[in-house]
Amino acid sequence: MAEQKQPEVDLATRMQVDESVVGHNEIDESLYSRQLYVLGHEAMKRMGASNVLIVGLKGLGVEIAKNIALAGVKSLTLYDPAPVQIADLSSQFFLTPSDVGKPRDEVTVPRVAELNAYTPVKLHQSPGLDGELSQFDKYQVVVLTNAPIHQQKAIGDYCHSKGIYVVIADTYGLFGSVFCDFGEKFTCIDPTGETPLNGIVAGIDEEGLVSALDETRHGLEDGDYVTFSEVEGMEALNGAEPRRITVKGPYTFSIGDVSGLGQYKRGGMYQQVKMPKIINFKDFTTALKEPEFLISDFAKFDRPQQLHLGFQALHAFQLTHKRLPNPMDNDDAIVVLGAAKKFAEQEGLDIQLDEKLLKELSYQAQGDLNPMAAYFGGIVAQEILKAVSGKFQPINQWMYFDSLESLPTSINEE
Fold first, then answer.
1. What pLDDT digit, counting tens, does each position of 196-224 carry?
2. Is residue 259 within 8 Å of 190, Cβ to Cβ?
3. What is the DSSP letter of 7?
4. What is the residue extent of each domain of the chain?
5. Class in CATH terms, 198-273
6. Strand 398-402, strand 293-294: pairing
7. Rounded to an integer, what distance in angstroms lies between the CA atom of residue 249 and that of residue 251?
8. What pLDDT sits at residue 118?
9. Coiled-coil annotation: which residues (predicted)?
10. What is the 3 state secondary structure string of 318-382?
């Protein structure tokens, strides 16, 4: 018996959220159980009130979209009207050969929407991103991938002025970068996400030096805050405001001046208190000239500055030639290297450029690898969740990574 063909479902229907599943903005604890364990209900509620826009739907963009759709934000909006190319199929897992020539966002949106009935997925309707920047006002987070640097500057600086969180990411072959701007005075409620430490007090001297019981390591760090309970002799400490500590050793820490609090007798418990951390992010244009790097590999300590110049050189090459450098094209690589040197001179940097590294970056610039997209897609999705939840220390502000170790050590060219 011939198999009956299912009727084609239109785009609008496939993008609808199943209201019978979603309910009244409730958190499905069975679906999000692991996420709730890590983030907590309050952070999940903040995520559930956030609208996220992702620009660029090649391999990296769709990895981010997939992760955010599964995380459960209020809405996810995608934008990339460029036509699908056959090369996109190497890393964009939602595309098929029959999609070639169609707008990337139109074919991707309904497929992302199927991942999670709780997350509505929409198309961003706009004739272009270079026009009216107020089109971004309705989003809490804007993510840019595969965007030219002039768009990164314009959109990034505008969002900074409006308090909209921005994440910018790119991959070129085995190279990749992430930039985060969560605005001035961003509040990180819990930088570590770890369970607060506690312990038994063995003694508190007149200088405010607290000793842990039986030489038990307290595990605290300089700048942590603690409160006390059940202390005898220094009862004023019990239930008092959290005190900032200075670590004196693995078994002792100082709470500062304790004069007038009496003489310690016995007992007591200390409890670590998580205090909000205020982080000031620079806008994109400022951070481009005054970068702060998160070191992802201490064996490559000097590489972030090299790649920071190299990525700018790639953008300059693309602006001039309307394309990225060709694979293994030495002439293109020399142009990229020259642009990197020019940027270094303009910024007054006293740096010896790694010519071999920057040429390798040029050789791989057109590469769009699924493993790199998956790696950076996970990182970017985490940064988005950090922004909207306020939990965990975000990247401040640039992170560069390469996996050149994945290349073979020798290739026979024939």
1. 999 999 999 999 999 998 778 899 999 89
2. no
3. P
4. 11-189+369-406, 198-273, 303-364
5. mainly beta
6. parallel
7. 5
8. 87
9. none
10. HHHHCCCCCCCCHHHHHHHHHHHHHHHHHCCCCCCCCHHHHHHHHHHCCCCCHHHHHHHHHHHHH
- Determine contact, residues 377/370, Cβ cutoff 8 Å: no
Q: In angstroms, how far is CA 259 from the centroid of its own chain?
A: 45
Per-residue pLDDT, 329: 96
Is there a contact between 401 and 176 (Cβ–Cβ < 8 Å)?
yes
User: In sequence order, what DSSP letters do the residues of 241-264 get, joined into one string?
Assistant: PPEE-EEEETTEEE----TTS---
Tens-digit pLDDT profile for residues 187-197: 998 888 888 99
Whether 11-189+369-406 and 198-273 share one fold: the answer is: no
Q: How far apart are CA 28 and CA 21, in angstroms?
A: 9
By DSSP bridging, strand 175-181 and strand 165-172 are antiparallel
Determine the Cα–Cα distance for residues 394 and 130; give it in Å rounded to an integer.
28
- The dihedral region occupied by 193, where left means phi > 0, alpha psi between -120 and 50, and beta the remainder, is left
Contact between 199 and 216 under an 8 Å Cβ cutoff? The reply is yes
Q: What is the pLDDT of residue 37?
A: 55
**Which of the four pLDDT bands, split at 50, 70 and 90, describes residue 8?**
very low
- Indicate the SS3 state at residue 68: helix
For the domain covering 11-189+369-406, report its CATH number.
3.40.50.720
Give the three-state DSSP class for 28: coil
Residues in CB range of 175: below 8 A, 6 or more apart? 307, 310, 311, 361, 364, 372, 400, 401, 402
94 Rama class: left (phi>0) / alpha (psi -120 to 50) / beta: alpha
What are the C-alpha distances in Å from 295 to residues 177, 298, 376, 404, 406?
12, 6, 15, 16, 19
* Cα 339 from chain centroid (whole Å): 28
Q: Which two tokens stand for residue 392?
A: 């965990």
Separation between Cα atoms, residue 35 and residue 15, nearest integer Å? 24
Residues in the chain: 414
